[in-house]
Amino acid sequence: MKSEIFNSAITNRKKIKFVYNLTPIEVEPYYLSINRNGNKVIYGRPNSSHQVKMFEFKKIFNIKVLNNSKFSPIIPILPIYN
């Protein structure tokens, strides 16, 4: 179920809001993957950051797709932006 919600948000470039480790977070989702420990994760950029961060599925609760806010991904091309 979580994968379907995240895939839809990624495809439609919609921001998502969820609770992660008891902290509410708003994220621009980029892609789903599996980390080195075999856990499913989502990579995305939180609103308060310019870095892409990893979030483990098992720590994510209360997912909401924010239909009124679209985004375009930030792709660092020049080294000065990293």
What does this structure look like?
The chain is mainly beta. It contains 1 helix and 5 strands, in the order αβββββ. It has one helix at residues 2-12; strands at 14-20, 23-34, 40-46, 53-56, 60-70. The protein has a 5-stranded antiparallel sheet. A hairpin with a 6-residue loop joins strand 3 (40-46) and strand 4.
Task: Break the fold down into its secondary structure elements and pairings.
Blueprint: H1 2-12, E1 14-20, E2 23-34, E3 40-46, E4 53-56, E5 60-70
Antiparallel strand pairs: 1-2, 1-5, 2-3, 3-4
Number of helices: 1
Structural class: mainly beta
Mean pLDDT: 87
Measured on Cα atoms, how large is the radius of gyration? 13 Å
Distance between the amino and carboxyl termini: 34 Å
The counted number of beta strands is 5
Percent in helix: 10-25%
How would you characterize the largest beta sheet? 5 strands, antiparallel
Provide the low-confidence segments as ranges: none
General form:
globular
Strand order of the largest sheet: 4-3-2-1-5
Question: Which percent band covers the strand fraction?
Answer: over 45%
Q: What is the N-to-C order of secondary-structure elements (H for helix, E for strand)?
A: HEEEEE
Summarize the structure.
With 82 residues, the chain is mainly beta. Helix content is 13%, strand content 50%.
